[in-house]
């Protein structure tokens, strides 16, 4: 069986569609981050207390809210746990904002939530499954860590690509990856899903994955450039994308399959993580074709217009 | 190629055996038990408590310099320098001691004291107004901080060990932020753990200079409205069952938690519960000097207060001079004597602590997560394997074998290195499956291309691997780079993810490039020259 045996699609000819598509989703995400849901940081980064409670029977959220209010716990965010497969609807996350978890009275929030629950429910009616308390210091530190980890891993990849190819390849790949991250974080903002530590791990994974996809295309471009110096870069890039298309579709499709199974069967604890990967695989695959490769051509056009050099450096020749 | 092939096959089988051993170890008590013993599950999977706490090292620095202030005062007096004031003026700089008001005639005497070996951990500078400023050297401060953190870790470890938690993790955390990570598998009551860790907080013995008083007001009145600068008011019960009272204590402690070498509960000659303790030699000398001057029979009899967590727990008169061993007798019960001696024995924390992060996962949620994660991993892997068989026919078997071997190597790695499998780690496994498949797809698509270009089966395999190899190296190295950075800068679950991902990628490189190749070569060898390849 073979798909896409010989495709001959003019990918670069569609660059304005791609640009429009990317712009719409980036701008939507950015607008949501600025004016609507902002960046919905979870307890990990914002600080605060989060208690996950499993009830024997399906609980009434209003009833829980009243129970909290009666016991003087205000500002609690009560959220039914949603599972893509529809199970475990009798779990509830009760979250208190950062002010309740200062470094001094660390678990005051947890205690008040637990006492509010036991005052209003029979002890056997609920089980506290998970408690997360993050003080403001730790939250800021984790935020910083996440930023640094993302920044450093981008720099690390850029340097490796610079070393293996040429600087422009690295820059194009990093821009594509940045585009993916922006759109994925935008998707979290638009759907108002919390960004937790594991989601950050997922975003870093998607960076790695998108990079992976981009490198496969770039490697083919480099190889083709070395083989046929007379062909225009436009044609080389198009041909390279077409040649790697079956691999792109199969690999991304299969990775998407595994990630989808994680999303569907992995349970609600991994919900955010797998959501980021589902979005990330799609957008990462798209960006290596629609963002990274066209950037190489745009760069060369710019160089030509400056009267510098006509050909894009092929980079260090692949040793075969 | 035939001989080479046999060698490679032997190598692959050896790797397989070694990593199988990594997963199972020396079998005992059934296969599942062996695997459970080798593959450590993270707290998110088996349930437990994860705490991050911060040690307030500045406090330890403050009390170290407080002690040096007292020492310096005594040394200056001994050298005949009278009238100088020794103190710390800036609370934001606990490492700096200011000596002011040195009489001009005594300047050189003072200087020789300050520059003596006793104060070699300080940089001494003379300020414009004739005062001297002693600032603890950066290296000494760092040493003290490290020591404080290490002592805290040791103390917490001993306390946790007494709780009987199996396989606790207690270690430094973060990048130089004076933080400690405590992981307690199976413990789902963090409040109890926090209490036990915190109850060992700061312990010290101070000289009593006044009291007990009924309230802050009476204490002030008794001291003409001013608390002497070298003293402090501390609340406490003094003895079991007594009402809350207030004592005036010397600010500088005579003995601190870290000075205790050992402590045992016992009974005195009258059968009253007491605590026998041993001090370190250095602390013993210090304590001897003080207690000798203040025994009950001396001209200046004194008493001492045991202060725990800024609360007076016991006040006892000094019966006789104490050097490195002594006993504390107070109105306490045997149980209290036991608890107190346990705290002294395990050593009190050298500085107070606060909690930054607490995460608890109940065992049921952990079990559900394992189940779901494993189901998702198996479902994803099966779907991929079936697709590979349908799409690449014969070569699909290569890919599927490589995938399974991948999993064995990955788990074997984890068994050998004792690394922990977390929930994001399972996700890392799934992602590794994805990348492993990608390597095979890259190779197979390349071989198909070469076949389409009219190459023979053998040449197509040769060329396909050669071309794909470059790309596979590039993609894997970039991802390994990001996994390593994740490991360096991430924490907890992110680290678990990075570890699994990195191991998985190394396993991938091995299976995709070597194992898959050997299988192809073995097939080609059996085939007639020119026969078609099933791909």
UniProtKB/TrEMBL annotation, chain A:
<dbReference type="InterPro" id="IPR022813">
    <property type="entry name" value="SecD/SecF_arch_bac"/>
</dbReference>
<feature type="domain" description="Protein export membrane protein SecD/SecF C-terminal">
    <location>
        <begin position="123"/>
        <end position="300"/>
    </location>
</feature>
<keyword id="KW-0472">Membrane</keyword>
<dbReference type="InterPro" id="IPR005665">
    <property type="entry name" value="SecF_bac"/>
</dbReference>
<dbReference type="InterPro" id="IPR022646">
    <property type="entry name" value="SecD/SecF_CS"/>
</dbReference>
<keyword id="KW-0813">Transport</keyword>
<dbReference type="InterPro" id="IPR055344">
    <property type="entry name" value="SecD_SecF_C_bact"/>
</dbReference>
<dbReference type="GO" id="GO:0043952">
    <property type="term" value="P:protein transport by the Sec complex"/>
</dbReference>
<dbReference type="InterPro" id="IPR048634">
    <property type="entry name" value="SecD_SecF_C"/>
</dbReference>
<feature type="transmembrane region" description="Helical">
    <location>
        <begin position="248"/>
        <end position="266"/>
    </location>
</feature>
<comment type="similarity">
    <text>In the C-terminal section; belongs to the SecD/SecF family. SecF subfamily.</text>
</comment>
<feature type="transmembrane region" description="Helical">
    <location>
        <begin position="16"/>
        <end position="36"/>
    </location>
</feature>
<protein>
    <recommendedName>
        <fullName>Protein-export membrane protein SecF</fullName>
    </recommendedName>
</protein>
<dbReference type="GO" id="GO:0005886">
    <property type="term" value="C:plasma membrane"/>
</dbReference>
<dbReference type="GO" id="GO:0015450">
    <property type="term" value="F:protein-transporting ATPase activity"/>
</dbReference>
<feature type="transmembrane region" description="Helical">
    <location>
        <begin position="169"/>
        <end position="190"/>
    </location>
</feature>
<keyword id="KW-0811">Translocation</keyword>
<comment type="subunit">
    <text>Part of the essential Sec protein translocation apparatus which comprises SecA, SecYEG and auxiliary proteins SecDF-YajC and YidC.</text>
</comment>
<comment type="function">
    <text>Part of the Sec protein translocase complex. Interacts with the SecYEG preprotein conducting channel. SecDF uses the proton motive force (PMF) to complete protein translocation after the ATP-dependent function of SecA.</text>
</comment>
<keyword id="KW-1003">Cell membrane</keyword>
<feature type="transmembrane region" description="Helical">
    <location>
        <begin position="272"/>
        <end position="299"/>
    </location>
</feature>
<dbReference type="Pfam" id="PF02355">
    <property type="entry name" value="SecD_SecF_C"/>
</dbReference>
TrEMBL record, chain B:
<feature type="transmembrane region" description="Helical">
    <location>
        <begin position="496"/>
        <end position="520"/>
    </location>
</feature>
<dbReference type="GO" id="GO:0043952">
    <property type="term" value="P:protein transport by the Sec complex"/>
</dbReference>
<keyword id="KW-0811">Translocation</keyword>
<feature type="domain" description="Protein export membrane protein SecD/SecF C-terminal">
    <location>
        <begin position="352"/>
        <end position="521"/>
    </location>
</feature>
<dbReference type="InterPro" id="IPR054384">
    <property type="entry name" value="SecDF_P1_head"/>
</dbReference>
<protein>
    <recommendedName>
        <fullName>Protein translocase subunit SecD</fullName>
    </recommendedName>
</protein>
<comment type="function">
    <text>Part of the Sec protein translocase complex. Interacts with the SecYEG preprotein conducting channel. SecDF uses the proton motive force (PMF) to complete protein translocation after the ATP-dependent function of SecA.</text>
</comment>
<keyword id="KW-1003">Cell membrane</keyword>
<dbReference type="Pfam" id="PF22599">
    <property type="entry name" value="SecDF_P1_head"/>
</dbReference>
<keyword id="KW-0472">Membrane</keyword>
<feature type="domain" description="Protein translocase subunit SecDF P1">
    <location>
        <begin position="150"/>
        <end position="209"/>
    </location>
</feature>
<keyword id="KW-0653">Protein transport</keyword>
<feature type="transmembrane region" description="Helical">
    <location>
        <begin position="423"/>
        <end position="444"/>
    </location>
</feature>
<dbReference type="GO" id="GO:0015450">
    <property type="term" value="F:protein-transporting ATPase activity"/>
</dbReference>
<feature type="domain" description="SecDF P1 head subdomain">
    <location>
        <begin position="244"/>
        <end position="351"/>
    </location>
</feature>
<dbReference type="InterPro" id="IPR022646">
    <property type="entry name" value="SecD/SecF_CS"/>
</dbReference>
<dbReference type="InterPro" id="IPR048631">
    <property type="entry name" value="SecD_1st"/>
</dbReference>
<comment type="subunit">
    <text>Forms a complex with SecF. Part of the essential Sec protein translocation apparatus which comprises SecA, SecYEG and auxiliary proteins SecDF. Other proteins may also be involved.</text>
</comment>
<dbReference type="GO" id="GO:0006605">
    <property type="term" value="P:protein targeting"/>
</dbReference>
<dbReference type="GO" id="GO:0005886">
    <property type="term" value="C:plasma membrane"/>
</dbReference>
<dbReference type="Pfam" id="PF21760">
    <property type="entry name" value="SecD_1st"/>
</dbReference>
<keyword id="KW-0813">Transport</keyword>
């Amino acid at each position: 069986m073979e798909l896409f045996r010989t495709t001959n699609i003019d990918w670069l000819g569609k660059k304005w569609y791609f640009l429009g598509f990317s712009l719409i989703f980036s701008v939507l995400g950015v607008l949501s981050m600025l004016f609507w849901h902002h960046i919905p940081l979870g307890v990990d980064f914002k600080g605060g207390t989060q208690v996950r409670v499993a009830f024997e029977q399906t609980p009434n959220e209003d009833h829980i809210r009243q129970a909290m209010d009666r016991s003087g716990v205000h500002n609690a965010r009560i959220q039914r746990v949603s599972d893509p497969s529809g199970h475990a609807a009798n779990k509830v996350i009760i979250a208190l904002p950062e002010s309740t978890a200062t470094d001094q009275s660390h678990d005051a929030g947890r205690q008040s939530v637990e006492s509010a629950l036991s005052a209003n429910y029979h002890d056997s009616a609920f089980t506290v499954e998970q408690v997360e308390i993050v003080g403001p210091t730790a939250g800021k530190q984790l935020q910083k860590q996440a930023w640094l980890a993302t920044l450093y891993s981008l720099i690390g990849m850029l340097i490796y690509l610079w070393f293996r190819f040429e600087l422009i390849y690295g820059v194009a790949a990093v821009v594509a990856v940045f585009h993916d991250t922006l759109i994925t974080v935008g998707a979290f903002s638009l759907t108002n899903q919390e960004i937790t530590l594991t989601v950050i791990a997922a975003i870093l994974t998607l960076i790695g994955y998108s990079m992976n996809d981009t490198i496969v295309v770039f490697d083919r471009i480099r190889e083709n450039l070395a083989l046929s110096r007379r062909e225009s870069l436009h044609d080389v890039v198009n041909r390279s994308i077409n040649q790697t298309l079956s691999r792109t579709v199969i690999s991304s499709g299969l990775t998407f399959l595994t990630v989808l199974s994680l999303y569907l069967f992995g349970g609600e604890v991994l919900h955010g993580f797998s959501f980021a990967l589902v979005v990330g695989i799609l957008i990462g695959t798209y960006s290596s074709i629609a963002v990274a490769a066209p950037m190489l051509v745009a760069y060369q056009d710019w160089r030509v217009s400056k009267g510098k050099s006509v050909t894009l450096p092929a980079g260090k020749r692949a040793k075969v | 190629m035939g001989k080479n092939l046999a060698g490679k096959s032997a190598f692959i089988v050896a790797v397989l055996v070694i990593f199988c051993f990594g997963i199972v170890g020396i079998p005992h008590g059934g296969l599942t038990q062996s695997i459970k013993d080798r593959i450590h599950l993270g707290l998110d999977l088996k349930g437990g408590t994860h705490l991050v706490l911060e040690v307030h090292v500045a406090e330890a620095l403050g009390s170290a310099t407080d002690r040096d202030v007292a020492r310096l005062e005594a040394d200056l007096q001994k050298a005949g320098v009278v009238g100088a004031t020794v103190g710390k003026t800036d609370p934001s700089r606990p490492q700096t001691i200011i000596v002011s008001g040195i009489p001009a005639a005594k300047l050189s005497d003072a200087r020789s004291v300050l520059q003596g070996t006793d104060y070699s951990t300080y940089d001494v500078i003379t300020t414009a107004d004739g005062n001297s400023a002693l600032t603890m050297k950066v290296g000494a401060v760092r040493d003290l901080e490290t020591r404080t953190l290490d002592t805290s870790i040791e103390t917490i470890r001993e306390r946790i060990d007494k709780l009987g938690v199996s396989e606790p993790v207690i270690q430094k955390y973060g990048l130089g932020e004076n933080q400690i990570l405590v992981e307690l598998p199976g413990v789902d009551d963090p409040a109890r753990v926090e209490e036990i860790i915190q109850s060992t907080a700061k312990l010290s013995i101070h000289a009593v200079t006044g009291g007990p008083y009924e309230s802050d007001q009476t204490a002030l009145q008794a001291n003409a409205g001013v608390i002497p600068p070298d003293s402090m008011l501390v609340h406490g019960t003094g003895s079991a069952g007594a009402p809350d009272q207030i004592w005036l204590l010397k600010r500088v402690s005579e003995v601190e938690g870290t000075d205790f070498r050992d402590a045992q509960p016992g009974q005195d000659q009258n059968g009253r519960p007491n605590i026998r303790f041993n001090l370190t030699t250095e602390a013993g000398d210090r304590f001897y000097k003080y207690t000798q001057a203040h025994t009950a029979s001396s001209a200046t009899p004194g008493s001492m207060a045991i202060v725990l967590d800024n609360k007076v727990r016991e006040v006892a008169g000094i019966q006789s001079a104490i050097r490195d061993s002594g006993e504390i007798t107070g109105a306490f019960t045997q149980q209290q004597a036991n608890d107190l001696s346990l705290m002294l024995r395990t050593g009190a924390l050298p500085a107070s602590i606060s909690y930054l992060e607490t995460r608890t996962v109940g065992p049921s949620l952990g079990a559900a997560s394992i189940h779901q994660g494993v189901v998702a991993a198996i479902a994803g892997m099966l779907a991929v394997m079936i697709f590979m068989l349908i799409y690449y026919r014969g070569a699909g078997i290569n890919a599927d074998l490589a995938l399974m071997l991948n999993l064995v190597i990955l788990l074997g790695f984890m068994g050998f290195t004792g690394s922990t499998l977390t929930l994001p780690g399972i996700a890392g496994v799934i992602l590794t499956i994805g990348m492993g498949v990608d390597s095979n797809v890259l190779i197979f698509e390349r071989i198909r291309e070469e076949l389409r270009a009219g190459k023979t089966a053998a040449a197509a395999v040769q060329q396909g691997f050669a071309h794909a190899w470059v790309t596979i190296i590039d993609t894997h190295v970039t991802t390994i780079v990001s996994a390593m950075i994740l490991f360096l800068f991430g924490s907890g679950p992110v680290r678990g993810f990075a570890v699994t991902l990195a191991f998985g990628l190394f396993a991938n490189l091995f299976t995709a490039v070597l194992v898959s190749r050997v299988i192809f070569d073995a097939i080609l060898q059996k085939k007639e020259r020119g026969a078609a390849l099933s791909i």
